[in-house]
Amino acid sequence: MTKNETTKNDTVRNGAVRNGTSKKVMNKRMGIILKSLLTRWDGLIASIFCMLWIAVSIISLVWTPYALTFTDGYNVWSAPSSSHILGTDGAGADVFSWLMAGSATELLIVCAVAVITAVCGVSGVAVSVSRNSGVRGISVVTFDALISIPIIVIALLCAAPWGASIVGVIIACSFAYSLNLMRVVRPSAITAVRSPYVTFARYKGISEFKIFWTHILPQIIPSVIINVSFASATAILAESGLTYLGVGVPSHIASWGRSLSTAANFVTIHPSVALWPGVIITVAVIMINLLGDALRESIDPLTNAELRRS
Amino acid sequence: MALIELRNVRKVFPTTQTPALDNVSVTVHEGERVAVVGQSGSGKTTLLNIALGFTSATSGAVQTADPHTTGLVFQNPITSLDPRWKVCDIVREGKSGSSYEEVREALENVSLDPDVVMDRYISDISGGQAQRVAIARALISEPKLLVADEPVSAVDVLGKQYIIDTFQHAHEERGLAMLIVLHDLGVAQKLSDTIVVMHEGKIVEHGDTQQVLTHPEHSYTKKLIEAARW
């Protein structure tokens, strides 16, 4: 048996294979997706940024240049120097250490919002294109009604019993962005549901779950990736806003939003202190969006020729 | 034994006053090949949708095709196949648990080289090849009945010939019954024993294909034959 035949047998072997994706083929595809991602300029830059972000977050859990509780009363609002590379804030705390520690909080919020938004959003899409017209109708009306609730209201509802918390930020952002994902992705899902290949699958008696998983989900994945990356990036901005309003990250936990909101009170006197959290938030938002765009192009066989040939 | 039976079927869509089908009766028996011809809007596709159970009839008796013994081929090969699936997976969907050899054989039966097309996506093959993939998917389960909506309208002359050969071979070898909507009377002559001529939702002529095409009785059938000659 030739190598070529072996690969094809792997693709269509009874039982062990589902839709041409044996473990071996899956690994090969993952390799192609990763290679494609890293050969694009946007994917490469965004990936490097994200790796750095993860590394800094991990390091910050065990080490920061200065402890977060450290304050130097004789050295407030100081400019960047060799001892404080991004300067100090009004309490004399090291801005770099707080931003470093804040990166871990931000990473947690971004990852949690991305996962919850993707899972809840896609599940909502599945319900809203259900074959049962009653379920479909009720879900669409419910989602349309819920989408009108602003993030701040949900954050306030979460803050009422528990006070300002990271969980509240994650719930508020995930809730709002899941609904937004449903609204944006649903038309693509409806197009797939009405396609002849879904009609064929339904006629052949294939289960609705399998049809959604194998036919509809692959069609909506590109839109889902873009929406999830947008949601993750926007979650950073939302965290900043909610923290500024006092219903976001609590004051004893470092976050980029916390650093920005602290500096914002003195922005007219010492604008340079607001600059660093502002810059890091802006760069992170851009990089997450670039990563989402590059990932969408890399993961889709319709746009990735190498993946099509694999 | 009838695989599909429609008796005095009438279909009126809520948005229109005129019936899409009016007192239509069509039966497809085992091993029988029935072609439905007529111009666009004559109700051919509505008839197929009712025969398959996709749409309900407003009145009349309907015995729909059994999904387990029926193969389906849609009109547009590009939209009828999942663009994010490989050809091997698409064909395999026609028969749950089909083996690599069965998929190869199904592709060979529609004159496609499995080594060339198996691992390709639909966007990487021609419309004619895509339609043959759709036919391979429909025939891999060796159905008793094939229901096809204008299967040759979107393919070139050579592709058309491949498809006609495939259908004829399946009929001769396994007694495949067919209900096919067609525009091309030449193809209808080759692929059917019985022809149903439809006009404005009604059957205007129904009978042996050779008889109807050589000695048409209704003026509309004569007009269709005349247009086909031109």
TrEMBL record, chain B:
Q: Which residues form the signal peptide?
A: none
Please give the family membership noted in the entry.
Belongs to the ABC transporter superfamily.
Pfam family for this entry, one: ABC_tran
Q: Which SMART domains match?
A: AAA
The name under which this protein is listed is ATP-binding cassette domain-containing protein
Q: Which GO BP terms apply?
A: transmembrane transport
Q: Where is the ABC transporter domain?
A: 4-225
Tell me which domain of life the UniProt entry assigns to the organism this sequence originates from.
Bacteria
Instruction: Extract the GO molecular function terms from the UniProt entry.
Output: ATP binding; ATP hydrolysis activity
Q: Does the keyword ATP-binding apply?
A: yes
Keywords for this entry?
ATP-binding, Nucleotide-binding, Transport
Q: Which organism is it from?
A: Alloscardovia theropitheci
Q: SUPFAM superfamilies from the xrefs?
A: P-loop containing nucleoside triphosphate hydrolases
Q: Which PROSITE patterns match?
A: ABC_TRANSPORTER_1, ABC_TRANSPORTER_2
